[in-house]
Amino acid sequence: MSTPDTALAAAPRGPGAAVGAQGTRTGVWLAGAAVLAFLLLFFVLPVARVFITAFLDGDGSLTFRNASTWEILGEPVKARTPS
Description:
The protein is mainly α. The chain has 2 helices and 2 strands, in the order H-H-E-E.
């Protein structure tokens, strides 16, 4: 009778089924790296660029003047004085 550990160890593995650190297949690491690279390239970097641009002036210097024009859900961020 075989235990699950010995049955797993005896299972045939095809080409490309190399096992990396701690028993994880190399393909899983490669797929994870591809997903991480995609997210970094098409999500994190463009969003970071938008945030950086929000704090730059026309000549590229750092400013907080643009914060006075920000709106959240159509309402200005600055507090309005009651009429």
